[in-house]
Write a structure and sequence with these properties.
Layout (H helix, E strand, L loop, with lengths): L10 H27 L6 H13 L4 H9 L8 H7 L11 H12 L9 E2 L5 E2 L3 E7 L5 E7 L3 H22 L3 E2 L1 H14 L2 H14 L6 E2 L12 E5 L4 E2 H5 L5 H22 L1 E3 L7 E3 L6 E3 L5 E3 L2 H16 L2 H11 L6 H19 L4 E2 L8 H16 L2 E2 L4 H18 L2 E2 L1 H9 L4 H15 L6
Parallel strand pairs: 5-14, 6-11
Antiparallel strand pairs: 1-3, 2-3, 3-4, 4-7, 8-10, 9-12, 10-11, 13-15
Helix pairs in contact: 1-2, 1-6, 2-4, 6-7, 8-17, 10-15, 10-16, 11-12, 11-13, 11-17, 13-14
């Protein structure tokens, strides 16, 4: 059996992947060098379109990382971020010969006998694998997510390219030191290769969201799960975007928004856990429109209780105009040696994120009609950080920030109008670090998920 068949990273696999992606990153490098050292003007918008075309045709994490970075202010030039934000997991599925070999490798030569039926065609595609619908002998409908071949090699090659691209941009223009952002992405991507870990994280979400109205989580089938195969209960549902195209009534839009808010923030404020991938493909509307299905648990982060406490303290600091409390929150997160000016710039970003939570009234998530309002705020923050000397971003920060930005984008698409203040307050009104730590430890132990990083 080859190294790649065993799921190991191989030098040949990494080199092959880098050949396919290095042209895009190399093109960025050439343009950066030309602009920085030779004074040449480049068409970053045109090159961003080329980069999107290259990344969009590849299976694997570079496409997913591109989606992520497109939501992190100042991680990439604006032209690249706008193009990469449109990427989707649209690579063609692997055929039946691959599926048959992979299933035999994971479950043994008699693997077909473990199912009453198994769909030969992929039912869905993801960045690291594809999903097949099947039926168990006891009649349960299940989804089998199979990892694409040679993915460890793909991850390592893509991480090298990602680091180069981020370093180049840092030298060119960025006011943020994103080294710890890279480290966070690296660790989460490597974890995502382990489907047994994802199964544990799925169990964790089942525990944390038990009894939460309007949110359903699939259950893993442990006997049919390995590091490269994840079998879980099949949930009936349809893409939320398809439902939005039918222009549902405001009441239905608001119900979806409230369910999504709780799906993300009940785990965070009560257990210190965040789902790190809040894009439209990871939730569905349920039959009868009675809630949402929450999917894909490969990227989560477990936070220390003190981090969650600082999120609440910064909210209170923004609400009350308390600069000392804001300073303490930033320091608790790991921001170091902030000048008064830099802290004021960061608080401007915090004010943008927290504003919908402060006023006790029904409102849309953003009251400006300008679709580029959030990016204009981010650009203003970027310019302020450059003026005040920049800042090093703590590694705990990116997934939390992405959840806020990603969900905000979804709420905009929903055109939801709810009382965000009350949704937030019901989760934090009795917050206690000690109680969160106790709940977190119990839930992680029950699911078999490692403790906070």
């Amino acid at each position: 059996m080859s190294g790649s068949d065993r799921g190991e990273s191989t030098l040949f696999g990494e080199m092959r992947r880098m050949v396919r992606t290095s042209g895009a990153v190399g093109g960025i490098a050439a343009r950066v060098a030309g602009q920085r050292f030779l004074g040449l003007k480049t068409d970053k918008g045109a090159h961003a379109e080329d980069l999107k075309q290259i990344l969009g045709g590849l299976k694997g994490p570079l496409m997913k990382v591109a989606q992520f970075l497109s939501t992190v202010p100042d991680a990439l030039p604006e032209e690249y971020a706008q193009q990469l934000a449109t990427l989707q997991a649209n690579a063609p599925p692997m055929g039946w010969p691959f599926v048959r070999r992979r299933m035999q490798s994971e479950l043994g030569p008699d693997w077909e006998g473990k199912f009453a039926s198994f769909g030969r065609e992929a039912a869905a595609a993801a960045s690291l694998g594809q999903v097949h619908r099947a039926t168990l002998p006891d009649g349960r409908e299940v989804a089998c997510k199979l990892q694409y071949p040679d993915m460890p090699s793909v991850v390592e090659a893509d991480l090298r390219q990602l680091r180069l691209a981020m370093q180049l941009y840092r030298r060119m223009d960025s006011s943020l030191d994103n080294e710890e952002v890279y480290q966070e992405l690296r660790d989460r991507l490597r974890e995502e290769l382990d489907y047994e870990r994802e199964a544990a994280q799925m169990r964790l979400y089942g525990t944390m969201l038990e009894g939460v109205p309007g949110v359903v989580v699939p259950q893993p089938v442990q006997a049919l799960t390995t590091k490269r195969l994840l079998t879980m209960t099949w949930l009936e549902g349809r893409a939320i975007q398809a439902r939005l195209e039918e222009d549902p009534p405001q009441e239905e839009r608001n119900a979806y928004a409230e369910a999504l808010f709780r799906a993300w923030y009940v785990p965070f404020y009560r257990y210190g856990v965040i789902h790190g991938d809040p894009h439209l493909g990871n939730y569905q509307t349920r039959p009868g429109r009675d809630g949402i299905n929450l999917l894909d648990f490969g990227t989560i982060r477990v936070f220390k209780p003190s981090f969650v406490a600082a999120v609440i303290h910064l909210y209170e600091a923004v609400r009350d105009g308390d600069e000392d409390k804001a300073q303490a929150a930033y320091e608790s997160w790991g921001f170091r040696n902030l000048s008064r000016e830099t802290r004021a710039v960061l608080t401007e970003w915090a004010r943008f994120l927290y504003e919908p939570l402060i006023e006790d009234r029904v409102r849309p998530i953003q009251e400006s009609d300008d679709p580029s309002y959030g990016r204009r705020i981010a650009q203003k923050v970027h310019e302020g950080l450059k003026r005040t000397g920049g800042v090093r971003v703590p590694r705990e920060f990116p997934l939390m920030d992405r959840a806020a930005i990603g969900l905000g984008s979804v709420f905009l698409r929903l055109r939801a109008e709810v009382n965000w203040h009350r949704l937030f307050r019901e989760l934090v009104v009795d917050f206690s670090e000690a109680a969160l730590a106790e709940r977190q430890a119990a839930a992680l132990a029950k699911a078999g998920v490692p403790r906070a990083v």
